[in-house]
């Protein structure tokens, strides 16, 4: 499938322009989208995929969060639990409302694109995906996770988590979340009770990275390190962050040494 990047970019820019760019959350998502597209392209190129497939990975990054914009406008939050599933909203915009035609005319990859968009934020992937579908879904998911670390460092935490900044100075960490940290699991959001739990859940996205290129990019960017250095007035949280630091970095070392996930 041939993708006209200029056309797709113009379509995305026109869509984003219909929302209030003065809203920090809207600006965050615009910038995040461009970076995820670039990261997806980078990961795909690192897998030595054909140019058309690298372009497809880039397009998935451009499309994956379209639902965030109406979510923010309607609910004012990124929290799917308190609003709607943003990945489903993105899929609905593209394939129920037909906005995919704003970006491409060729419908040969529609099934793959829809699956990737709808599954990009799922806790676990369903069985039944083809090898090709799984690869592209995992490329998109990796790119999204890598950039979420940067978002946590570049934007005010109160805008991301919808709590006063003071709460991050005193909030604790739940034992269930620490068990996820210790067992090298992405955090089940049902375990999150505090803003620090959610913050650690973002740190633990590293455990879900599939491709070594993604882990190398995390190390190169340095945002994970910055997140783990978050200051806290809660002694137990200080200990939890130190433990998470050890666990996550040990995991990345294993993965880069050739350890593979199950």
What's the short version?
This protein has 262 residues and is an all-alpha fold. Helix content is 63%, strand content 0%. Helix 2 (24-46) runs antiparallel to helix 3, helix 2 crosses helix 7 (131-154) and helix 7 (131-154) runs parallel beside helix 12.
Comma- or semicolon-separated keywords:
262 residues; mainly alpha; Hypothetical protein af1432; 2 domains; 14 helices
General description of the model:
The chain is mostly helical and 262 residues long. It has 2 domains: 1-144, Hypothetical protein af1432 (Orthogonal Bundle), CATH 1.10.3210; 156-262, no CATH class. Helix content is 63%, strand content 0%. It has 14 helices and no strands. The protein has helices at residues 5-16, 24-46, 51-63, 68-75, 86-95, 110-119, 131-154, 157-161, 165-170, 175-182, 195-203, 212-221, 223-228, 235-256. Helix 2 (24-46) packs across helix 7. The mean pLDDT is 96.
Specify the structural class: mainly alpha
The whole-number mean of residue pLDDT values reads: 96
Q: Enumerate how many helices there are, as a single number.
A: 14
Q: CATH fold name of the largest domain, please?
A: Hypothetical protein af1432
What is the general shape?
globular
CATH class of the largest domain: Mainly Alpha
Number of strands: 0
Largest sheet: none
Helix/strand order, N-terminal first: HHHHHHHHHHHHHH
């Amino acid at each position: 499938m041939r993708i006209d990047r200029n056309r797709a970019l113009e379509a995305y820019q026109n869509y984003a322009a219909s929302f209030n760019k003065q809203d920090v959350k809207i600006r965050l998502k615009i910038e995040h989208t461009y970076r995820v597209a670039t990261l997806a392209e980078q990961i795909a190129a690192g897998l030595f995929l054909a140019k058309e497939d690298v372009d497809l990975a880039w397009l998935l990054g451009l499309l994956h969060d379209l639902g965030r914009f109406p979510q923010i406008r309607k609910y004012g939050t990124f929290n799917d639990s308190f609003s709607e599933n943003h990945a489903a909203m993105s899929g609905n915009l593209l394939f129920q409302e037909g906005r995919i035609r704003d970006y491409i005319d060729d419908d040969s990859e529609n099934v793959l694109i829809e699956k990737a968009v709808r599954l990009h934020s799922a806790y676990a992937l369903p069985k039944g995906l083809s090898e090709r579908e799984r690869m592209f879904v995992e490329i998109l998911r990796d790119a999204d996770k890598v950039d979420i670390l940067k978002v946590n460092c570049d934007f005010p935490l109160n805008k991301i988590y919808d709590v006063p900044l003071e709460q991050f100075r005193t909030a604790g960490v739940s034992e269930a979340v620490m068990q996820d940290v210790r067992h090298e699991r992405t955090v089940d959001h049902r375990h999150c009770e505090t803003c620090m739990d959610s913050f650690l859940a973002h740190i633990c996205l590293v455990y879900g990275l599939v491709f070594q290129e993604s882990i190398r990019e995390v190390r190169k960017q340095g945002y994970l390190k910055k997140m783990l250095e978050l200051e806290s007035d809660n002694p137990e949280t200080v200990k939890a962050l130190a433990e998470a630091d050890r666990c996550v970095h040990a995991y990345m070392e294993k993965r880069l040494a050739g350890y593979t996930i199950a």
